[in-house]
Structure formats: structure tokens, C-alpha cells
Design brief:
about 60 residues; mainly alpha; single chain
Length: about 60
């Protein structure tokens, strides 16, 4: 799994690359399944990344009130 230290843009770019490969229809099932699994792991990591950013913004906003 990719380290949390990887930035959002890099994670998103990897996901976009996987999606393009899956949508191309050129992968056989033995290649598509691990690509799909990696894509799902990236989606989870990106969601976590965004949730962390959202929590930081909420925290900063509450400090300004």
C-alpha cells in the first residue's frame, strides 16, 4: 500500500492511470483483478486524505470563531 506521505495528486494520478487501463479493455482478468484491487485501495486512501483535510479545515475554522 502507498504511504500516507504520498501527496493527493500522486495518488489521484495513479488511480486515473488504473482507471484508463481498466476502461481500455486491454487487460486480461489476471491483470484486471489486481488493478481493480489497487484502485479500490487508492480510493480508500484518497477518501481518508480528504477526510483529514476536511477535519483540519473544521479545526482551523473553529479556532477563528
Amino acid at each position: 500500500m502507498t504511504s500516507k506521505k504520498t501527496d493527493y495528486a500522486a495518488l489521484n494520478a495513479e488511480l486515473e492511470e488504473i482507471l484508463a487501463k481498466l476502461q481500455s479493455g486491454e487487460l486480461n482478468i489476471d491483470e484486471a483483478l489486481p488493478a481493480y484491487e489497487r484502485g479500490m485501495a487508492l480510493v480508500k486512501e484518497l477518501e481518508d486524505y480528504l477526510k483529514t483535510a476536511e477535519n483540519k479545515v473544521k479545526s482551523l475554522k473553529s479556532k477563528l470563531k
